């Protein structure tokens, strides 16, 4: 018996033995097509020799040096590269070890920024009910996923949650996308007014909502309106690109497609592509200047800040994505996968919606197409689908969400960008067999 503390104590997973390209293999030799990159992590697939080589070389040179004593060449190179590729205005990079850390850092930086600026009354965070921003307490409090929050609710800070931009369920009959986006923006502005604009610190959102909802992008113009509201009241816009960033939607940063730049941006997952536990928080020159010319010390840190080996890996990931143009595969392969999903499942009675951007796609599963009625929670559709797909040799990411009191089952797909045409077919076939077994 192993002494490992598994996350699911009653359903132990198989032991992974090796991985290569788009596949993982267990110790019995069974192959699993990585249709969700784990949880939207493995953008380059497995066994990328450039990333592995860069990390090995760094391990030989200096594996780790604490940022209390040193900076390092790979950390500085990563920061420079990220800024050169980031939306206009993002100027400084704080390198952490994962997505929750990046979001926790973002929230604390926002707070410290206003303290340094002499606006200590700015404490309110507005976020959306359909969101996940990480599992540490600050990030968990910011997210709106009821199931994840519930057990820890007494420990969570107050965050003000507003309606998500969720066209499939949120758009009123006869409403255009533009009217819908305007209505949501007006709700957010009303929330700012109700709280008192001078008390609001940040608006936090995922440009394309991931785990909670299954790849839900906003309607055109929504984020531009939010940016305007934030500017009008001096509120920081924090975008969480932990899941949708690093090329997943076809552009390196998802918000590029919404035509907005945040004041603070969190990335992780694809930044390390599974080779290194790493995340980053990017912030504007103005925010950095407030700290630099103020206390001169960001009062927040973790032991593995700017980890040199992880940074060397992330630099190589960016080289693969940008210089080797792996990123260029996302839009065409995403269109191919989406087309194949629409063709295969588009008319199925359980298919409510197919959505997403690039290789970040979601299928919403419903009991009735016309009424959009969700499945009875007792049916446990998402859990059964995960199991059935895994039995078929497919890793995908089904989830149940509760959004504004409505329950929804969806499956998220986020395969590696190196996916081939044949593998698109294999993914759809395996998903089809799994869905047929469950529904
Ligand atoms: N933010 C988003 C949008 C995520 O999807 C996740 C993880 O799924 C996180 C934050 C937390 O990242 P991590 O699991 O690396 O802590």
UniProtKB/TrEMBL annotation:
Keyword tags: Aminotransferase, Pyridoxal phosphate, Transferase
Gene3D superfamilies, sorted: Aspartate Aminotransferase, domain 1, Type I PLP-dependent aspartate aminotransferase-like (Major domain)
GO terms for cellular component: cytosol
Keyword flag Transferase: yes
Entry superkingdom: Bacteria
Keyword presence, Thylakoid: no
Molecular function via GO: pyridoxal phosphate binding; transaminase activity
Family recorded in the similarity comment: Belongs to the class-III pyridoxal-phosphate-dependent aminotransferase family.
The name this protein goes by in its record: Adenosylmethionine-8-amino-7-oxononanoate aminotransferase
UniProt organism field: Salipiger abyssi
């Amino acid at each position: 018996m192993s002494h490992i503390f598994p996350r699911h104590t009653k359903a132990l997973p198989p032991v992974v033995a090796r991985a290569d390209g788009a596949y993982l293999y267990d110790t019995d030799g069974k192959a699993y097509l990585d249709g969700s990159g784990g949880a939207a992590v493995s953008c380059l697939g497995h066994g990328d020799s450039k990333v592995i080589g860069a990390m090995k070389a760094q391990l030989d040179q200096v594996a780790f040096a604490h940022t209390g004593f040193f900076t390092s060449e790979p950390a500085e190179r990563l920061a420079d590269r990220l800024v050169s590729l980031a939306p206009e205005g993002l100027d400084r990079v704080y390198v952490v070890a994962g997505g929750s850390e990046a979001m926790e850092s973002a929230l604390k930086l926002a707070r410290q920024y206003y303290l340094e600026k002499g606006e200590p009354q700015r404490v309110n965070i507005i976020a959306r009910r359909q969101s996940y921003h990480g599992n540490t307490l600050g990030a968990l409090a910011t997210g709106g996923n009821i199931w994840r929050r519930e057990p820890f609710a007494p420990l969570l800070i107050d965050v003000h949650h507003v309606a998500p931009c969720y066209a499939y369920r949120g758009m009123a009959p006869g409403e255009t996308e533009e009217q819908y986006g305007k209505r949501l923006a007006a709700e957010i502005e009303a929330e700012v007014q109700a709280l008192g604009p001078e008390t609001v610190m940040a608006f936090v959102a995922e440009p394309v909502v991931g785990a909670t909802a299954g790849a839900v992008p906003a309607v055109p113009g929504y984020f531009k309106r939010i940016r305007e509201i934030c500017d009008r009241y001096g509120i920081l816009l924090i975008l969480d690109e932990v899941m949708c960033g690093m090329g997943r939607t076809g552009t390196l940063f998802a918000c590029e497609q919404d035509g907005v730049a945040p004041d603070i941006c969190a990335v992780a997952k694809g930044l390390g592509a599974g080779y290194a536990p790493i995340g980053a928080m990017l912030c504007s020159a103005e925010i950095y200047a407030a700290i630099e010319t103020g206390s001169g010390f960001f009062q927040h840190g973790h032991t593995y800040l700017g980890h040199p080996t992880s940074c060397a890996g992330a630099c190589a990931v960016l080289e693969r994505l940008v210089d080797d143009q792996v990123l260029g595969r996302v839009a065409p392969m995403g269109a191919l996968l989406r087309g194949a999903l629409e063709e295969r499942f588009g008319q199925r009675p359980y298919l409510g919606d197919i959505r997403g951007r690039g290789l970040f796609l979601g299928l919403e599963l419903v009991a009735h197409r016309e009424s959009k009625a969700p499945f009875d929670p007792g049916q446990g559709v998402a859990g059964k689908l995960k199991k059935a797909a895994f039995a078929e040799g497919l890793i995908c990411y089904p989830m149940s969400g509760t959004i504004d009191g409505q329950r929804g089952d969806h499956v998220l797909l986020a395969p590696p960008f190196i996916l081939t045409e044949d593998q698109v077919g294999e993914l759809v076939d395996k998903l089809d067999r799994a869905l047929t077994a469950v529904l």
